[in-house]
Amino acid sequence: MTKIFARFMKDESGATAIEYGLIAALISVALIAGATTLGTSLNTQFTNISKKLNCGTGTTAC
């Protein structure tokens, strides 16, 4: 029984898998945050372009 417990204490494969999982989760959170920021910025740019195009056609007051 002591040998099994000692071997279990030396086995670090589970800890490595958890570390890789945490790294993957951190990368995915960073990607989601970046995509959200980029999406908001693009939405603002397209809104401004749309307003300028509409102003040029005379359909809205500038």
UniProtKB/TrEMBL annotation:
Keywords: Membrane, Transmembrane, Transmembrane helix. The chain crosses the membrane at residues 20-42. This is Flp/Fap pilin component.
